[in-house]
Amino acid sequence: MSASGDNEVRLYLLPLGMTVRGRRDENILSVLVREKVSLAGACGGRGSCGKCRLLILEGSTGPPTTAEKELLSGEDLRRGTRLACQALVKGDLKIYIPASSLIREQRLLVEGVWEAPPFEPPVKVVRARGAASSTGGPPRSDLSLITASGGEAVGAEAMRTDLEGLKEVSLGLRSGGSEVHAVFRDGELLGTVRPGAGALGVAVDLGTTKVALFAHELSSGEAVSSCGIPNPQAPYGEDVITRLQHVLEDRERGNDLARLVREGMNEALSGMLAAAGYSTRDVFEVVLVGNTAMHHLFLGLPVEGLARSPYMPVTHLPLEVKARDLGLSLHPAAMVYLPPPVAGYVGSDHLAAICATRLKEREGPCLLLDIGTNTEVSLQVEGRIRCCSCASGPAFEGMGISQGMRAAEGAVEGVEVDAAGRLEVRVIGEAPPAGICGSGILSALAALLKSGALEDSGRLRPGHPGVSEKDGEAACWLVPPGKGGRGGVAVTQSDIREIQKAKGAVRAGVEALLAEAGIPHTEVKEVLLAGAFGSYLDPMDILSIAMLPPFPLEIIRQVGNAAGAGARSMLLSGDFRRRAEELAGDLDYLELSAYPPLARLFAASMYLTEEAVARAMSRFKV
Ligand code: FES
């Protein structure tokens, strides 16, 4: 980076990916406040709370102040950690802002901005003059009024139509209005738009844990509304495998699970659209992406193929199904488009994320991880994309963790070690600490390693002053019970083992793809973390516990819900949809369960420090 003027300097902020301008010799906090980047400073910039920590990756700042020497450890200062309210800007800077220093609302920024493709939806709205206002000779039929309007290509001999749609057009043309808005999808007449409303499309990202819905106006592409609900199937299994097993025991249960999720979507859509002034009847098209198990369970397809090797889905092709046949309460002629699953354990959601991030076109090698109950990983090298799926399980969502909870009020979301070696927790909202969420537990492991309470094998160090007991098991209390901490929040030895398995599965998958591509991790130019969890975790924490190879922090980018962004793009662009379908056939899928070195890679990846992982890899000769 070079200086941009006598007094003016540029500050490049990671992982926000923003560049802001500042003046030489002002403190970093002043620049950030001016640019509306809000840090979690409890002392208002007086240098006493130590909450406004940053990491200076490149460029020069003034020497550490007395306050910084008191609040930061020697190791922190050596690594380049500074306090934003103390450090003076001396030139252009590249700064990493840890999640712990950003206020929660600000972290939404790292969810990334959806970039809409050129607008060219498969569903189009055509204006046709009504019978009452027809001029010239008598029309031959109701349909001829639409063909005369020069709208969608309507065959002279025949026309594809939904029967319900045709009835609606006829009634609409005769209802006395001067014109009707007819809706076509790829040449098929679907119906008419309600007077005063628009034709809507809905993109759905059907996750194992959450369902995200985004509604768009199909005449303009404009976003109308969005919402997220928990997946109503969750009581029948927190992860994909349990849910599949539930259905395998009794095939009828498949219909029950399908009904549950469809009803959940109906309910969510009716509330979300009513609040925006629309009706579910205004929805003519749905694009639904999801992992392959969710895809099958939504459609009520048999799941036997997914549960047993070689883990084959029912279809590798895109599907179009009438919404009414699925029990979705939308316009009667509405269609649901489901992009193709890639493999048994890499679904159309990952395909959507690959397309939304333009992984194929990026300067590679480039890695994309969609972290969740199942973590899909893709590695692009010279335009070729290899992908795999890692069974990371629900621990990242806080499930299977003794005091695990979703990232809601009262959840511990971050843990730090202060200069005196004490643990400090960050809790969501004002509520007393009630449990720990996924990002919190990763952060806790990183802090416990740093404090020396945790060994790199994952064992809580016996005799360490920070290690005590909970319910007869070795544990570290992050928030001691009593006073404001009420029952307290602890991380137990079993919790740590759960996270080790989850992070080990992800690391093993990444190592397998690097080995298959024949490149070392040092050649990777960019690492994209997608998914809601990928947006909230702190990349510093995942590097600290060796969940990924030791990539430089500055190549890691958080890209938010890329699967949802891809689904929205497919809703608004037929071309985007076609390119996704082509790409699905080009992806090289690596089935990890049939990959001989996986067990050794996984065993080595369970260690919690880079040194220990590297030692184990060489010992296991992987
Ligand atoms: S804001 Fe409190 S130390 Fe900087």
Give your account of this protein's structure.
This protein is α/β, with parallel strands linked by helices. The protein has five domains: 8-109, Beta-grasp domain (Ubiquitin-like (UB roll)), CATH 3.10.20; 123-192, no CATH class; 231-338, Domain of unknown function (DUF4445) (Nucleotidyltransferase, domain 5, 2-Layer Sandwich); 349-393 and 506-619, Nucleotidyltransferase, domain 5 (2-Layer Sandwich), CATH 3.30.420; 395-498, no CATH class. The protein has 19 helices and 26 strands. Strands 11-10-9-12-14-13 form a six-stranded mixed beta sheet, sandwiched between helices. A six-stranded mixed beta sheet has the order 25-24-15-16-17-26, sandwiched between helices. Helix 11 crosses helix 16 (562-572), helix 16 (562-572) packs across helix 17 (574-586) and helix 18 (598-605) runs antiparallel to helix 19. The longest helix is centred in the last third of the chain and has 25 residues, at 493-517. It binds FE2/S2 (inorganic) cluster. FE2/S2 (inorganic) cluster binds at residues 41-43, 45, 47-52, 83-85.
